[in-house]
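Problem: given the chain below (386 residues), write out its structure.
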Amino acid sequence: MIINKHFILIIISFFFLGRCNNPKNDNKMENTKVSITKSLYGITKDNRKVDLYSFKTENGMEVDIINYGGIITSLKVPDKTGEIKDIVLGYNKLEDYVNENPYFGSIVGRYGNRIAKGKFNLNGNEYTLVTNNDENHLHGGNIGFDKAIWEAETKIDSNSSSLILKYLSKDMEEGYPGNLNTTVTYEIKNDNSIEITYEAQTDKTTIVNLTQHSYFNLSGDFNQSILNHKIKINADLFLPVNKSLIPTGEKSDVSMTPFDFRNFKNIEKDINADDLQLNYGNGYDHCWVLNDSEKGYRLIASAFDEVSGRLMEVYSDQPGLQFYTGNFLDGSLPQKKEGFYKFRSGFCMETQHFPNSPNQPDFPSVTLNPNEKYYSKTSYKFRIKE
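Solution.
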């Protein structure tokens, strides 16, 4: 009996030692199909820590997000042969994002896109915003949401894992009225999709238009242009712009124009057409008026790279989609490995309300009042096209 007791004590001791030597990782859960790991990404000049959150699905998608600007720094998905490659433009160092970033992978706010001359009226008050795009205001100003360090927490479920980012944009930040409490949630799902939800509340009437600004190149080769990608946009209308890329207020039919993407079409087919609108944007940099906006969340656009077989489907509840073909990339910004990002080496599909909406009463409203809640949802889903 004494030997048996000792034997039992030894077994119990090994059990507890095993638990002590293998502590539970707070960033993972054994039963999830999407793992998360957290690591230090860098330190800002004012000595603030920036963390990297790395997600991996059982179906081969890997996503890296930092809490500086909520930036997606890497997004790897398999091609038709199973080879996994990164398909978003970006950098591999924090200082590059801080010093010169054309919104690679960023959360954009308070207002995605342009506001004419940085001015708008709200409840009889005129507000003047920072102008950072010639005479206009673009993507929230000089210090927009893309440059904020967001508070971060994670959530793990059986088929997905989430990064929940929170930021308080203070009253009159970049000229915007009201203290705006903002939450952006990236949910990485095992079906190889990224669902992004945007929520905000204010204590003073303000304007809000949030989006995500990843540059995609589905080939996985950033030395290639995106001109051979096939694009489909579910929209019968688009918004013509002036020389400053501010919408004129008209909504034009895409029929018989270079802006007709209602069926899959190579970007290169019409991008160099002799068209005034394309001349203004040096390519596509326009907002499409999406069909079926009254239905809310629905499939709005797709992109396909025939060589790799990668298909990206975009779902959203928003009324507009800004399709941008990397027309301002000029070969001066470094790639993650070797080389530089050349002209039209990435494209953006930014779901949003329309540019300059505060100054266009016929556009859907972007006004948010106290006791109201701003909410929008967008998903990017990746698969191989049959």
